[in-house]
Amino acid sequence: DEEMVAAMVTDLLARLPPDFDIEKAGHRYPVKYEESLNQVLVQEMLRYNRLLATIRTSLLGLDKALAGLQVMSGELDTVFRSMAVGAVPALWKGKSFPSLKPLAGYTADLIARCTMLSDWYEHGPPPVF
């Protein structure tokens, strides 16, 4: 189980998108009455940054714990056990969008959602949501 989870941790860390630059997004899409979706974009970026930080921190901690460089806390053990059975850790669910998908589907969905926000930032709001 440890080797499998360690491989999953490495893969997820490599695939996680970088944090969104909230300051730049706020300047590029300022809050305006005529453009109310600007606020939605910035708020969603902020929410995903919090989620990504939680995921990244737990994965880095788990990676160190599996390598023997850090004590495996109860929280990290819970993350480990969830990942070992292909489930989304409860720690992530607390900061996440609602999802009933298993871990693989959840991470694919997370990456797709972050890509959508990134595309919105780069090219303007999508024609449909």
Notes on the structure:
With 129 residues, the chain is mainly alpha-helical. It has one domain (2-123): Substrate Binding Domain Of Dnak, Chain:A, Domain 2 (Up-down Bundle), CATH 1.20.1270. The longest helix has 30 residues, at 37-66. The protein has helices at 2-15, 22-28, 37-66, 74-84, 90-93, 103-123. Helices cover 67% and strands 0% of the residues. Helix 1 packs antiparallel against helix 3, helix 3 (37-66) packs across helix 4 (74-84) and helix 3 packs across helix 6. The mean pLDDT is 95. It contains 6 helices and no strands.
Helix-strand layout with pairing:
Elements: H1 2-15, H2 22-28, H3 37-66, H4 74-84, H5 90-93, H6 103-123
Helix pairs in contact: 1-3, 3-4, 3-6
CATH architect. name: Up-down Bundle
Low-confidence stretches: none
CA-based gyration radius:
17 Å
CATH topology: Substrate Binding Domain Of Dnak, Chain:A, Domain 2
Mass-distribution shape: elongated
Beta-strand content bin: under 5%
Largest β-sheet summary: none
- Mean pLDDT, to the nearest integer, reads 95
Tell me the name of the CATH class: Mainly Alpha
Number of strands: 0
